[in-house]
Amino acid sequence: MKNPLKIALCIEQTSNHTRGIAKGVSLYAQTHGPWIFSIIEKISGGGLVAPPQNRSKGFDSDGIIAYTQETAVLDELLQFGVPVVNTTQTTAMSPEVPFVAGDDRALGQLVANHFMDKGFKEFAFCGSVSYSPCSFLRGAGFREELEKEGFDVSFFSGTDHPSRKIDWNRDRKKVARWIRSLGQPLALFADNDSAGRVLADICRELDIHVPEEVAIVGANNDELICEFSNPHLSSVALAKEQVGFEAAELVEQLIQKKKIPALPILVPPLGITTRRSSEIFAVEDPHIAKALNFIYTYAGEAIGVEDILKELPLCRRTLEIRFRNAIGRSPYEEIRRAHVKRAKKLLAETNLPLDRIAEASGFSETKHFYLNFRKETGLSPTQFRKRFKGTTTHPVEGQGFRTG
Where are the domains of the chain? Predict the structure, then answer.
């Protein structure tokens, strides 16, 4: 029986995000252990305290997994003389410390596409980009994806001072003036859920309706914050457990001096958990809004374009033209997307067999389900279920559509 690895954790387990990372580390240890864990604690005023059980003989852990954005903490961890892996982006802070982290640029791109898919033309980002590398990358990904399609983005970052972030008490009035100055309907991306909740509060104070006039998406998918937001906040779900799992694998490879993968390791977000704050299509055409409502109401049935035409005083050619003008896709393409979104939800949240999911997602034949699902997602239904089982990151989009 091999000797257990001794791994020290310097991870504050006070947030949903860091607890998820710690869980991922634990999952790796359960399948690749045995591991013995200890905790390195930060003390008030700075500095670290090694585990008490190690004080008599000095630090005796084989490696360290950390979550910190403080250069001083990383420098002190390096003094222990063992491999250190961080679980947030730190290249500029301490290049000698490898990290595994969420891909924040990809996160911003995901939100941009979420809003573009819903037909928005006005976009804004709110975040402490000069203070937080995470916020900077999320905003950069958001802007880059939108500018590729010819859209401009308004930014609010509070202050350009690198040591300060947005202070909602100090900057609240400036944020309110900024929101008032923007066009509507507006797609607003907040760099985290706490900011998204405050932005929703500011909109309510300004008598701006969310999501009808301003749709909001946050990031980190902290359910406590999102569910207590008014309205409930849509948010990007992070693959925090995967970050912890891959960080654990990397620290083991470093300890055993094995060949390691190219660094850094960036883990893409899981997807967007859609709640009321972005359950809207920015569609001015009332007939297309009605068509979209019909599609998503009956996404679990084998509907076709002919069924939509029965609900509208339009010929097929006119429907096709107005649909493409409104959202850039054909009615058939949107029906397929709605079926696949429903299938995603069933795959992630139920144990139904694939043929039942195909039927419950509006596909007349299982082979059509497989082909269309892979075309939309790049994954087979089985691959998708393996990756997302137990999550709620791909719910069917909401049923509310803006009608001008």
Answer: 5-102+240-270, 104-238+272-278, 286-388
| Separation of alpha carbons 225 and 216, rounded Å | 14
Could you tell me the CA-to-CA distances from 242 to 291, 346, 381, 388, 398 in Å, in that order?
Answer: 39, 22, 20, 11, 28
| Cβ neighbours, 10 Å, residue 140 | 16
Please state, in angstroms and rounded to a whole number, the distance separating the CA atoms of residues 241 and 18: 9
What percent of the residues of the chain are helix, what percent strand, and what percent coil, each to the nearest 5? 45, 15, 40
Other residues' Cβ atoms within 10 Å of the Cβ of residue 172: 15
Amino acid of residue 186? L
Tokens for 371? 């082909």
Instruction: Let me know if 46 is exposed, middle or buried by CB neighbors in 10 A (0-12, 13-18, 19+).
Output: exposed
Q: How far apart, in whole angstroms, are the C-alpha atoms of residue 65 and residue 86?
A: 6
Query: What's the CATH code, domain 104-238+272-278?
Result: 3.40.50.2300
Rounded mean pLDDT of 136-157?
95
pLDDT(253) > 90 = yes
User: In whole angstroms, what is the distance from residue 13 CA to residue 149 CA?
Assistant: 40
Residue 297 confidence (pLDDT)? 84
Find, among 116, 12, 113, 17, the residue nearest to 65 by Cα.
Answer: 12
Nearest one of 220, 269, 267, 263 to 94, comparing CA atoms: 263
Are 154 and 123 a contacting pair, CB within 8 Å? Answer: yes
Closest Cα to residue 23, out of 83, 77, 67, 63? 67
Cβ–Cβ under 8 Å, residues 299 and 396: yes
Q: Domain 5-102+240-270 is in which class? A: alpha beta
Is the pLDDT at 391 greater than 70? The verdict is no
Residue 166 pLDDT: 85
Q: Tell me whether domains 5-102+240-270 and 104-238+272-278 share a fold.
A: yes
180 burial (CB, 10 Å; 0-12 / 13-18 / 19+) is exposed
Q: Which three-class secondary structure state does DSSP give residue 135?
A: helix
Superfamily of domain 286-388: Homeodomain-like (1.10.10.60)
How far from the centroid of its chain's Cα atoms is residue 304's Cα?
Answer: 32
User: By CB neighbour count within 10 A (0-12 exposed, 13-18 middle, 19+ buried), where does 305 fall?
Assistant: middle
